[in-house]
Write a structure and sequence with these properties.
Number of strands: 0
Strand content: under 5%
Protein name: Peptidase M41 domain-containing protein
Order of helices and strands: H
Organism: Rhizobium jaguaris
GO molecular function, one term: metalloendopeptidase activity
Structural class: mainly alpha
InterPro entries: Peptidase_M41-like
Amino acid sequence: MASQRDQSTITAYHEAGHAVMEWHAASMSP
């Protein structure tokens, strides 16, 4: 089971990854 610190790190990476995907989709649109 992930510790509290690991869980917050995973959450941060997940949120950052989502932001990158949104930025990439926006940059690809005309």
